[in-house]
Amino acid sequence: MAVPKRRMSRSNTRSRRAQWKATRVATAPCQQCHSPKLPHTVCPVCGTYNGRQIIEV
Asked: 21 lies in a domain?
């Protein structure tokens, strides 16, 4: 099993961890009501998906 030969300094550890960032949630506008929604999901506002009515709201 691989084991580090030397202890990593605080500055190196923090520099490496600084690259871990949260990414924004991707949204796409609904084709019917133009409200933001998650891609490839039914619109929670109007209930349509790919131009078809899926859920009665």
From this structure: no
Q: How many domains are there within the chain?
A: 1
Q: Are 28 and 37 in contact (CB under 8 A)?
A: yes
In-domain check, residue 11: no
CA–CA dist 24, 2 (Å, integer): 34
- Dist CA 16 CA 4 (whole Å): 15
Range of the domain at 41: 27-57
Closest residue by Cα to residue 45 from 14, 55, 5:
55
What's this model's pTM, rounded to 2 decimal places? 0.59
For the segment 25-54, the average pLDDT, to the nearest whole number, is: 94
